[in-house]
Specification:
alpha/beta; seven-stranded mixed beta sheet; Arc Repressor Mutant, subunit A
């Protein structure tokens, strides 16, 4: 098995300026670039005479002002949130206050308010109490005069993650589930590799020809990209399993072998990704651990 992933790391944009990415859809990139958000969070405005906003982004006055400027007086009817990570959801309150539009998302009910012991972004990045005005479930359809969205529950990166299919347009807003610039971070306990693999498989039979992700540029070959993501995860899991079989008995000893040239800023994210694979291998009965796997707890092949 080989790694079949290639990344699209070019992206043409100007912060604060709306750019068309598909007929009737513009993108505004927030100024929150980082090793885990690429150039920043993408906010999408959908519609012509009235608008839906997908992922209002971080709490940033300049970004909120750019959204309202791009609306140019057109009413914003709905604010859709892919998941309650702060770089996607924190701007919702200001946008709702300015427009009166309801915030719609899956919500965090039923999910424990705990994040990874070592936060990959260096600060609190989950809104544990996110409560949308309208709760969406898998398969729900959100309809206005100019659009029909279908919500697809795609946990893995986050338990509350939704993708939004723009029905009749072959466009899918993929949030952080599938992106072109890099692989998606799956960081336990917020993230689940088992859920992520299932959620990727959910997209394979769908017909959308364009994905518009939460970070990075549009994806014009989404089925190939999704298949490549699945292959990459299987390939990485085989690497983790082989490392354990060869005597690397902890997550912290596996990371430098699998990621020998990784930027120090991303070392925690890499360890969390390995942890997610280890948890999946334990669930599949291929690895054993005395207790929940931590970075220094001994692992052994089953």
């Amino acid at each position: 098995m080989t790694n079949d992933l290639t990344f699209k790391t070019t992206m043409h944009f100007t912060y604060g300026e709306p750019a068309p990415v598909s007929p009737g859809i513009v993108r505004i990139v927030a100024g929150n670039a980082s090793p885990l958000t690429f150039k920043g969070t993408n906010t999408y405005l959908v519609g012509m005479t009235e608008l839906a906003v997908i992922d209002p982004g971080p709490a940033d006055e300049a970004h909120s002002a750019a959204i309202l400027k791009a609306a140019a007086g057109r009413p914003i009817r709905q604010i859709l949130v892919t998941h309650a990570h702060r770089d996607h959801v924190d701007g919702a309150a200001a946008l709702k206050a300015a427009t009166g539009a309801p915030v719609m998302g899956y919500g965090r009910d039923g999910f424990p308010p705990i994040g990874p012991d070592t936060n990959p972004q260096g600060s609190e990045f989950i809104d544990y109490v996110f409560a949308p005005d309208v709760k969406l479930a898998h398969g729900d359809v959100i309809e206005e005069k100019e659009w029909r969205f279908q919500a697809l529950h795609t946990p893995g990166h986050a338990p509350d993650h939704l993708c939004f299919a723009l029905l009749g347009r072959n466009v899918l807003f993929s949030g952080d589930h599938v992106m072109a610039w890099n692989t998606t971070l799956v960081a336990p306990p917020e993230g689940s590799m088992a859920d992520y693999v299932c959620s990727l498989s959910l997209l394979l039979p769908r017909s959308e020809s364009v994905y518009l992700p939460g970070h990075g540029d549009r994806i014009d070959d989404p089925q190939r990209t999704t298949r490549a993501y699945l292959l990459h995860r299987r390939w990485r899991e085989e690497q983790v399993l082989e490392a354990i079989r060869c005597g690397l008995g902890t997550i912290q000893s596996i990371v430098p072998v699998l990621y020998p040239t990784i930027d120090r800023k991303l070392s925690s994210a890499a360890a969390l990704s390995v942890q997610a694979h280890v948890e999946h291998l334990i669930a599949r009965g291929l690895v054993v651990c005395d207790g929940s796997p931590t970075w220094d707890r001994p692992l052994s092949p089953a």
